[in-house]
Amino acid sequence: MGDLAHDTAVEGDAGRYRGCLSPDWEIWGPNGGYVASVALRAAGAHSRFDRPASIVGHYLGVAEFDEVDVGVETLRAAKRAESLRVSLRQHGQPVFEGLVWAVGDVDGYDHDTTTLPEPGDPESVPSTAERLAAAGRPMWYPFWQNFDQRVLDWVEHDDWEQRPPGDPVYGCWYRYVPASTFADLWIDACRSLILLDTLVWPAAANLHRGPYIAPSIDIAAGFHRFRPDEPWLYAQATATSAGGGVIGGDARVWARDGTLLAVGSSQLLCRPAPPPP
User: What are the two backbone dihedrals, phi and then psi, of residue 5, each rounded to the nearest 5 degrees?
Assistant: First the structure.
């Protein structure tokens, strides 16, 4: 089990930082949203503002669970906002390239037209770990041990590959463990960023069967509101299109009170899964 704040932390100053990728976030290698979160933390360490507004980025290589060098450059510094470029490299090779906007205190319009898809109580149902343990099935990857995950409409099926296809939508409740809330808004944004990046694949897998994997090749996320004192997040993704080896999707994250926190979109490169070792 990892720790979000510790495992995304960076050290350094003046645009040169260093972090270390933890194997607790393994899913086909380091999870893409986790790698992007290290970049976001570095932008936060460099920026004079306390609040991230967005991140867009390209995944340029599969990283190793080792130290990573992070360069941050301010591209535009305005009175109320700052644009930053973040570059992650490992062993001299590029891993992730991102652009981040940070903002200060700004007055403006305020509205939210979304509806929380699952307004039920996440604590009223067993966790995914408890359900899998009762069925004698292991947790899929170390990555999933970083969450208390609650599915309200759980469907039992002994053979996953023989399940009936469903809609290309996936959503449920998440609470990070062992620490669930973070006063630092840059860390709080990482909670949403990881879910926005991760859930398009299980949404696509709801519709399809077959031995495939689909790592993210890009991510775009916007952070609209923050609930640093709310442990439970509801995240839902839709895999809107798939063709030619590319899956496209979008995702949203809400707080338990129904407030939309973040939105995102990503493209995944779908390819046959490698044979097991």
Answer: -65, -45
Length of the chain: 277
DSSP assigned state of 122: G
| DSSP letters for 21-68 | --GGGBSSSB-HHHHHHHHHHHHHHH-S-SEEEEEEEEE-S---SSEE
| Residue 27, φ and ψ in degrees, nearest 5 | -160, 100
Domain ranges within the chain, ordered by starting residue: 4-104+122-272
Q: What CATH number belongs to 4-104+122-272?
A: 2.40.160.210
pLDDT tens, per residue, the chain with 277 residues: 889 999 999 999 999 999 999 999 999 899 999 999 999 999 999 999 999 999 999 999 999 999 999 999 999 999 999 999 999 999 999 999 999 999 999 999 999 999 999 888 999 998 888 888 887 777 778 999 999 999 987 776 655 566 678 899 999 999 999 999 999 999 999 999 999 999 999 999 999 988 899 999 999 999 999 999 999 999 999 999 999 999 999 999 999 999 999 999 999 999 998 876 5
* Alpha helix positions (H), the chain: 4-7, 32-46, 128-134, 185-198, 200-207
At residue 108, φ and ψ (nearest 5 deg) are -175, -170
